């Protein structure tokens, strides 16, 4: 044997050990019988266009100092979350168990089914709506999607813009769906849902 083998990330009550856990209070029960079969991709930066720092995590955990930046006053009191955040450098943070309903999609529908929060996993990408994303983020998405596909019967991955058209525009034209799908290890049964 050449040395210890690194343990493959696994699940513990809907928490993926491959991510840094930062628990958000902004979640609820999924409806009885809900099947998690959709991934919704989003983009976020706080303030818009500024990357790095802890503002996104602070927003999702209700610890954002609203007076720290003029933009924050425009979202004062907002209570939102996502299951995961993929930072610019590829680090993955988790805020809500995938067994729970995160508050990420809002008023939404996919293939005629309303309330996407009920049956989806929300993944935020640190980025500006319409802007480009880093190679490290695409690379980090693959093992996360693989892990999600092992835990849930995922059918499709789509954007916030596709489940809330006209209301939301993220992740936007800067996200390269074909490049993600072409990466080695991309779950073969996970179709693009837009």
UniProtKB/TrEMBL annotation:
Query: Where does the record place the N-acetylmuramoyl-L-alanine amidase domain?
Result: 24-172
Gene Ontology MF annotations: metal ion binding; N-acetylmuramoyl-L-alanine amidase activity
Any Pfam family the entry gives: Amidase_2
Record-listed E.C. numbers: 3.5.1.28
Mind listing the GO biological process terms from this record?
Answer: cell wall organization; peptidoglycan catabolic process; peptidoglycan turnover
Catalyses which reaction(s): Hydrolyzes the link between N-acetylmuramoyl residues and L-amino acid residues in certain cell-wall glycopeptides
Q: Which GO terms describe its cellular component?
A: cytoplasm
Keyword Metal-binding attributed: yes
> Which cofactors are reported in the record for this sequence?
Zn(2+)
Recite the UniProt keywords alphabetically: Cell wall biogenesis/degradation, Cytoplasm, Hydrolase, Metal-binding, Zinc
Name its cellular compartments.
Cytoplasm
Q: Which residues form a coiled coil?
A: none
- Coarse class of the primary localization is cytoplasm
UniProt similarity note? Belongs to the N-acetylmuramoyl-L-alanine amidase 2 family.
Q: What is this protein identified as?
A: 1,6-anhydro-N-acetylmuramyl-L-alanine amidase AmpD
């Amino acid at each position: 044997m050449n040395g210890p083998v690194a343990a493959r990330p696994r699940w513990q009550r809907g928490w993926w050990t491959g991510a840094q856990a930062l628990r958000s209070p902004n979640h609820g029960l999924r409806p009885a019988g809900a099947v998690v079969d959709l991934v919704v991709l989003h983009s976020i930066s706080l303030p818009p266009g500024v990357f790095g720092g802890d503002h996104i995590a602070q927003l999702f955990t209700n610890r954002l100092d609203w007076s720290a930046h003029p933009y924050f006053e425009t979202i004062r009191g907002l209570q939102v979350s996502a299951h995961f955040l993929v930072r610019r450098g590829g680090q993955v943070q988790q805020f809500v168990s995938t067994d729970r309903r995160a508050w990420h999609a809002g008023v939404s529908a996919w293939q005629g089914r309303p309330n996407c929060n009920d049956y989806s996993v929300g993944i935020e990408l640190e980025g500006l709506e319409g802007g480009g994303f880093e190679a490290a983020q695409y690379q980090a998405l693959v093992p996360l999607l693989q892990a999600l596909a092992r835990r849930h019967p995922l059918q499709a991955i789509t954007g916030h813009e596709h489940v809330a058209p006209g209301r939301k525009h993220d992740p936007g034209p800067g996200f390269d769906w074909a490049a993600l799908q072409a990466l080695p290890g991309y779950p073969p049964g996970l179709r693009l849902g837009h």
